[in-house]
Amino acid sequence: MKILIITGTVAKDNILKHVKDYKKHELYMKILPIPIAAFITPKLIIYHLKQEKTFKSINANNKCNLNDFDMIITPGLMKQDASVIKEELNIPTVKGSTNSADIRLTLDILDEMDLSTTTPADILIRDKQYEESMKIINAYDKGSETAKNELKKMSNILIGDCPVGFDFPMRVLGEIANATSFTDDELLNKADYYINSGADMIDIGMTAGENNCQKAYDIVKLIKDNYDIPVSVDSVNPNEIKSGLHAGADLVLSIDHGNYEKVIKDIRDYEAAAVMIPTDYSKNYVPKSPREKVTSLEKLDNKCKGITTIADLLLDPINSPSLTKSLDAYLIYRRQNPSKQMFFGVGNVSELLDVDSHGVHALLAAIAMELNVSILFTPEASLKTKNAIKELKTASNMMFISKHKGSIPKNIGINLIQLKDAYKKDDATIDINGLEQIKARGDGKFTPDVKGSFKIVVADGYIKAIHYVNYEKSSVIYGKCARDIYEEILRRDMISRLEHAAYMGMELEKAETALKLDKQYVQDFPIF
Asked: Which of 225, 283, 341, 462 is the most buried (most CB within 10 A)?
């Protein structure tokens, strides 16, 4: 196709750099006498194009008349609808990318999808990638025809009504750790938060060393009565396991050589599933080597015929005793048991590692996917692993799409990139030679504003600016966007000093960043 790219004076060099040696389409460029591409309008484009009879190609030794173009691509940041240009010039016109760095991406997909006159190309492409990925994932939801067909295979099972197995996304099991210490309202709030974060199942973590049979029953029943979601009872205490099963638990976490005989009949009678671990805690036996773990678990599985079992080789924390050795156990077990369901205790690693959790969860989910693990298990027991369930759900979806497409988990519309940049962004290169160079200096002086002061907090999913006048609270302005709040403050004439306005802009932006990243925000303190 013969394509005419519209841009301003600042972005032209970046575009030329990115389309250098581009061969798929014959490209032309019209540089409007406007520095910033976002300030270009359809009327300006129409006016300037009508002034030029012929255009010279930037990647071929050709010329083209305006009427011979197959397409016009406007700046993605142009605010108006590009269809006005098409109507006036009778040439198909679409919006390009918001950043010049994505121009090749835009050009590459022109033959594969229709671009928009209102939505920038890069956003449209990534939205489409996300929609296509989620369409695949949603096809495997419970009750779907795809799920019903896949459940006919031996490698897939049901836990409650949740389809689990090789042919489904890895399911996320969220643990309410020390569940016995919470009130009913607190338990329901946690369950609600977990479900909204993407948990496929809720785990009721009992308190080790205690005998809380009644609480096991009550908590499992509370969750089952209020939510349509599979629930597991997390204990090796046979009495607590039985109580949880009587209340409707769909999964037992866990059985070992020391307790299986006491609970296997109940598990069978209630048609629940059970996670097996290669221990015998009644005799303080914990296998050490990978081979010992595998042998112990295979023996236990042979003893548990007649119930649905899921193998947990016990993922170890780093250097305690060894993450890699525990992964070796998973590898050996998978080779010897190619169709067995497996369980991955992700929290054992991420909770005991001082690293931002989203990258850890992505990598562990990738390893789990290659091992054909069915369940990813985690609590959210510390500040650094807040949002662990949401992160694991996203990671599980990424790995399922990667597996489904036979591709690497990149450019699939789903990602866990939160603090770095996924895509290159070009910025204007401005020549500052010859300008006065002024080194900034702050004096730290503070002059109270006669119109009052603000205390900024982040709470309940909002930024809240509490206005004080004469040291008394007068009102609260709240929102999720720093700009919305400071514009409201300006509209209401609540600030009289420029340095106060600048300070508020700085603090509100920090608060918005903290809100987006779910970090703690305290006014006047850095968030990083």
From this structure: 341
